[in-house]
Design goal:
Elements: H1 19-25, H2 27-40, E1 50-54, E2 112-116, H3 118-125, E3 145-153, H4 163-196, H5 203-221, E4 233-240, E5 245-253, H6 260-278, E6 283-291, E7 295-298, H7 300-305, H8 315-328, E8 335-342, H9 351-362, E9 368-374, H10 381-392, E10 397-402, H11 408-415
Parallel strand pairs: 5-6, 5-8, 8-9, 9-10
Antiparallel strand pairs: 1-2, 3-4, 6-7
């Protein structure tokens, strides 16, 4: 009988089926299924699971069987072609036998279908994307705790007893209590031996020594081997864990030139960014700033549904974001991200001021600033000014143009693709 032992590494907390190993083996096919799902899904459905179909021929496993040794005979009923001693030729490739392929009657082996969970789907979805400068942590107002070892205590549960530490203390206690008695016992034994070796032993003194020796030995034997005082227990305390926090500023032009279609594209882009941030940070807050000639902080529903008329002054939104950062989000404790969506229309004299605010005051505080221009026309003066900011802050500022819904995800991947400049 042959025994096969599988020594391949299995992930922790995995079942016997080892789902993680299976997904590593068919990683390429799963990635293709995720890419196909991205193309046909809306943003609202982007974070759900996905069914993946693996062709049956790809999941076949090698089979080991015991072979027939030596010479053996078999009887084939209905044989009219071969006689005893004839050699039967090997069947041609694909001829005869049974298999899992499709037959003439249309029957065949079904593909293997399994479903990716939401977390697994997002792992593949954001596999080759990264966030820059994911380094800031803070301890204020943290809700995450980790149990860590903090020495030993004299009280605890029996399951937490530290045997080695307890025995070490017991040995030290026995040495401390028994050493004077052992030294005194040694002296009495030497004196008794000396008296017994004399020509005329002093029997009265010898009997006294024997009584003292017996009393000392009894005292030594009464020293407990392990006393409750010796017991030591592992001590564990809950320590606050640093948790990375991020805030995402969403800036959007809501002037008359931003119609519902453009705002829908902006919403989908912001949704992708928020979903991506929640994969990298423990705490993510979103701040929504809308602007036309004036800027204001609003809730999400007002941000996407309300529409204004009039012109556009982008610098008002940048100034408001700067005020909110100074008031609520200290740079030392928060990772700051910003995504700005606009159709590129801006008051001509305001664009240079926007460039100055971004290049000198806002982008240096940011982990990353992404500008998305939703327009089919040629770039206007705001885009030209932002290009200068991109040249000055290559690793913190990025800009792309979106002309339709189908370009949202490609633009998002271009903005957050992994580069060597991203530091962790």
């Amino acid at each position: 009988m042959a025994y096969l032992i599988d020594r391949r590494i299995a992930g922790r907390h995995k079942s016997a089926v080892n789902r993680e190993r299976f997904m590593r083996r068919f990683r390429g096919q799963i990635k293709e299924a995720v890419d196909r799902a991205i193309k046909r899904r809306s943003i609202k459905q982007i974070d759900s699971g996905e069914k993946v179909s693996i062709p049956a021929r790809d999941i076949s496993e090698p089979v080991f069987r015991q072979g027939h040794g030596g010479v053996w005979e078999s009887v084939h009923p209905g044989n009219e072609e071969y006689r005893r001693g004839d050699r039967i030729p090997r069947p041609r490739s694909g001829a005869g036998g049974s298999g899992g392929g499709a037959s003439n009657d249309g029957e065949g082996e079904d593909d293997f279908v399994f479903e990716l969970s939401r977390e697994e789907f997002l792992d593949y979805f954001f596999e080759d994307l990264a966030l820059p400068n994911l380094v800031k942590t803070q301890l204020a107002n943290t809700q995450d705790y980790k149990t860590t070892r903090a020495g030993y205590s004299v009280e605890g549960t029996p399951t937490n007893i530290h045997v080695v530490r307890s025995l070490r203390g017991a040995i030290g206690r026995r040495i401390a209590l028994g050493s004077p008695l052992v030294a005194e016992l040694r002296q009495l034994l030497e004196e008794k031996e000396r008296l017994e070796s004399e020509p005329v032993p002093d029997m009265l003194r010898i009997r006294e020594l024997e009584e003292q020796i017996h009393a000392l030995r009894s005292r030594i034997y009464r020293i407990p081997y392990l006393d409750p005082f010796d017991l030591r227990y592992r001590n564990r305390v809950r320590m606050p864990q640093p948790s990375a926090r991020a805030v995402m500023f969403c800036l959007m032009d809501v002037s008359g030139s931003m119609d519902e279609a453009k705002k829908d594209i902006a919403k989908r882009f912001f949704t992708l960014l928020y979903l991506f941030l929640t994969r990298n940070y423990d705490t993510v807050e979103a701040v929504f700033i809308r602007h036309h000639t004036q800027a204001e902080e609003v809730d999400e529903e007002t941000f996407f549904k309300s529409r204004e008329t009039g012109g556009t002054v982008v610098s008002t939104a940048l100034k408001l974001m700067q005020e909110i950062i100074a008031r609520r989000y200290p740079v030392a404790e928060w990772n700051l991200y910003a995504a700005q969506a606009s159709d590129g229309d801006n008051w001509h004299d305001d664009s240079p001021q926007c460039r100055h605010l971004l290049a000198n005051e806002i982008v240096p505080l940011m982990q990353y600033y992404a500008y998305v221009e939703i327009a089919e026309a040629e770039p206007q003066n705001l885009w030209q000014e932002y290009e200068r900011v991109a040249e000055q802050h290559k690793h913190r500022f990025a800009m792309q143009r979106i002309r339709g819904v189908e370009e949202i995800y490609p633009v998002f991947r271009e903005l957050f693709k992994k580069t060597n400049a991203f530091a962790y």
